[in-house]
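ok posting inputs for the flavin mononucleotide job
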Amino acid sequence: MDILEAIFGRRSIRKFKKSTIPYRVLFDIFEAGVSAPRAGNVPSTWMVLVESDKLKTKLKDACVDQDWIENAPVIIAVCSNPKRLTQLYGARGEIYAIQNSSAIIQNILIAAQEYGLQGTWVGAFSESEVRKVLSKKPGKMDKVNVHALVALGKPDEHPKKLPEIQATDLVYYEAWGESNKSSKMIPLASNPKLQNTIRRAKQRSKKTRHKLIKKIGKTIKHFK
Ligand SMILES: Cc1cc2nc3c(=O)[nH]c(=O)nc-3n(C[C@H](O)[C@H](O)[C@H](O)COP(=O)(O)O)c2cc1C
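and the output
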């Protein structure tokens, strides 16, 4: 899959098909995750793969109003121990730890699409509750930060189009708040290659939706 197509085709999915994800696929995705850049090349992020119904339900209870999460085939808890980073870099080590995890999460979400999967980056949960759920012994995760839960699976929904936010809205030129030049330099409307890639990415997710509708045999309201 084209890299830009995967980037533009990524969407947060909160309704999944029941199908399980083979470990071969999961571990390809983990490898893609951990090949993200990391500060000082120091590992600080560890992940816990959760697929049992019992633990998924407990994680759901630790989330704020997100019952859908327990129906994801897998949940990946992205956790960090910033000890070595803070030894090396002081207070910035804490920031690097968050950045390291974020880079891994984004790689996971992008790579998952190679296997027809999508995921959602979940940040709204009680960290202490998640620690309790994932610790075999009380206190085992006391020094560990839980950065995110990533729910992953085969999509069973076609999410609504989001209000467009374009790079020209978010890129300043040479000084904070100076956007005049960037809006002339990088307008999406005059970049046919990028527009084409975005169109292909959207087309691909539509095809998946149409295949599903065909399989089920009728148009279901929420696919429209
Ligand atoms: C740090 C972070 C925390 C998020 N937390 C949640 C969450 O708790 N629940 C959820 O459903 N989506 C969560 N999201 C996903 C965003 O809602 C989603 O990315 C955004 O609405 C844009 O939609 P898209 O991912 O389909 O482009 C989170 C995303 C990020 C980056």
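notes: Residues 97 and 139 are 21 Å apart (CA to CA). The pocket of flavin mononucleotide is lined by residues 11-12, 14, 66, 120-124, 159, 162 (CB under 6 Å).
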